User: What shape does this take?
Amino acid sequence: MDTPASADREGISRIERMCIERGLKMTGQRRLIARVLSESEDHPDVEELYRRAVAQDSRISIATVYRTVRLLEEKGILERRDFGGGRARYDQADRGQHYHLIDVDTGKVIEFADPRHQALAQEIAARLGFELVDHRLEIFGRRFPEGKAPPGPRRPAKPQDET
Amino acid sequence: MDTPASADREGISRIERMCIERGLKMTGQRRLIARVLSESEDHPDVEELYRRAVAQDSRISIATVYRTVRLLEEKGILERRDFGGGRARYDQADRGQHYHLIDVDTGKVIEFADPRHQALAQEIAARLGFELVDHRLEIFGRRFPEGKAPPGPRRPAKPQDET
DNA sequence: ATAGGTGCAAAAAATTTGCTTGGAT
DNA sequence: ATCCAAGCAAATTTTTTGCACCTAT
Assistant: This one.
């Protein structure tokens, strides 16, 4: 059968393009997940990705979502994160070095960049005899008391995103 | 019954003392876990803690280990860590601020301290309108090629400890 | 005495996998 | 046509929990 506009319709997502570059077989499901990911500004977990995907096309199973994020992580397209909610969450790998601040009261995650940490991490790795491969920094913080934020639990609320 | 030398025998572990300070009921199992933890220089997961505990006294179940580390975390005696191996790992909370470097080839974890990060994290939190509650830094590195370390997988080997 | 801890096994929760069918190349 | 992907459900893996019994206080 012919595939109408097989590879250059208006709607090729950024992540789909990365998949193609890496020679991945593009099924409808992968295309869908790629689109959902490309449109996501936050750090969804698999359950959430599945929800967003199903909303667009129900012909996808959660097993496929698991298999796909795993594949994309292996291909360096996604990075797996752990913000403490018990579920792995995913972040696009090509957004440049950035870090996360988690609001311990609300669980919201805020991204930030700071070039100084990179240099510091590099230096420390070298001091210990390693070359820097990657590094992660998570800051847990509490919004300055503008109202009255009661002292919350030590363990942050299940992380959610700022969106 | 009398407890011979109830609270000042040679063998009260550091963590047991912290438990007592916080008014926890000290059972044989808790004492044992406290001792195992106090003697651990690394970052064991629950399975490993269980193994070490059973080796000293088999009258303990893994459910109790889970319940106990959870309790100790709530009491601020332990901190839960995630180094990517799929299992939670535990670190004594009172060792001062320190960070971890994970060897991506071997999975070994090395601790280090660096006061500059604390200041930086503080400053960043403030800039974003938060007060600093906690922060974590993990560096993933590869030992400098003294032999020939082939480029390994992106995901580190299941973290093990340096011990 | 009694509140709370423990063991055991079952339940949950998150993720992976075997197998058959379906679809991309 | 071939090989890999997807669906589904069962299996794994990690952690939690219900309940009857036991123990530190």
About this structure: Strands of chain A lie at 78-81, 89-92, 99-103, 108-112, 130-143, 160-161. Residues 3, 25-28, 46-47, 62-63, 66-67, 70, 86-88 of chain A lie near DNA strand C (CB under 10 Å from a C1'). The helical segments of chain A are 14-21, 28-39, 46-56, 62-74, 115-127. Residues 139 and 154 of chain A are 14 Å apart (CA to CA).
